[in-house]
């Protein structure tokens, strides 16, 4: 028996099930085989490919050999206010109450043929070893609650491998190989699953049309994976995008899915109101959760941790309400982003002196608007645009 067959069958037996990438393993080793072994390897690869193909329908499960031991989330973490008022984007960890800037991305425009252009993200990820942020090569990044694990997408723009990264060691603890390329990942609220939205092509492209204008192509979204981090299993579900003629509609090519606050449902964004449509894990339409609990187009809660107050919409000023709808405070900020605690909110604003409220940064503002603390330097939208990922510290 050739070394290829012996090694491959030993791997197969040790995994006690057909490895999802067995055909790839055989093909990768083929270049080193003598002619006779190549023929046997080709036969084995074809047989395995046929078997594996039978596993991949519209809704499939990929079962890697290993998963990840999910660390226990901290029951208590520091709520110390950490700011970097000299930099935008920040160089040191920014956090307030139970919210931290766990990662951020910057965007650059790349010209393509025929007046098309695409928007490429460059991601930086919090590094507990230095207390700062480290630029990465991943095409997408999200950090689990507790700031111990990150999910990353390997590839140029979109990719077929999702990695589970240990934030402290910077080692990828497991790779999950996927049949369909994904363009985003987001952790479940309990930090045990990753939701990855699949695309047949990179969605962030547009045809340039005059100054400040562009024409988006139809969304290439094809479905989504729910990845169980502990087992490494990835369940795929086909899901067509929302069209620009539907009601509600979505003209955007990027249509990433998100989690409900309790992790029991999924949502997909629209470009109108309601701002999201609800799905069960199998992609079937469901009624929205009771009450308007969500900050627009995010998985964060409008409701304060003690359940007494509700964040209002964007503005200058913004407002916070009690459960009866009465205004309890106004804040001179543009957007209310996340509750730091029952009395303070991380917001997008302009604390102190600034020439233009749109040259703004992250601030911490009190419910009554009387206290505002700068968390990052104000950003000049012409020079240092950056976008943050806000994650619970526990």
Describe this structure as you would to a colleague:
Keywords: Membrane, Transmembrane, Transmembrane helix. This is WD40 repeat domain-containing protein. The chain has 394 residues and is mainly beta. The chain folds into two domains: 53 residues, no CATH class; 298 residues, Neuraminidase, CATH 2.120.10. It contains three helices and 26 strands. An eight-stranded antiparallel beta sheet has the order 1-14-13-10-9-8-7-6, with no helix packed on it. Strands 2, 3, 4, 5, 11, 12 and 26 form a seven-stranded antiparallel beta sheet that branches. A hairpin with a 6-residue loop joins strand 16 and strand 17. Helix 2 runs antiparallel to helix 3. The longest helix has 19 residues. The radius of gyration is 23 Å and the shape is globular. The termini are far apart. The relative contact order is 0.13.
Please outline what is shown here.
By secondary structure, the chain is mainly beta. The chain has 3 helices and 26 strands.
From the helix content, strand content and strand pairing, which structural class follows? Answer: mainly beta
Total number of domains: 2
Helix content: 10-25%
Label the overall shape: globular
Measure the end-to-end span: 54 Å
The biggest beta sheet is recorded as: 8 strands, antiparallel
Q: Can you identify the CATH class of the largest domain?
A: Mainly Beta
Q: Architecture of the largest domain, CATH level 2? A: 6 Propeller
Helical element count? 3
The overall strand count is: 26
Order of SSEs, N→C?
HHHEEEEEEEEEEEEEEEEEEEEEEEEEE
Uncertain parts:
1-57
Biggest sheet strand order reads: 1-14-13-10-9-8-7-6
Radius of gyration: 23 Å
Transmembrane segments: 31-55
Protein name: WD40 repeat domain-containing protein
Keywords: Membrane, Transmembrane, Transmembrane helix
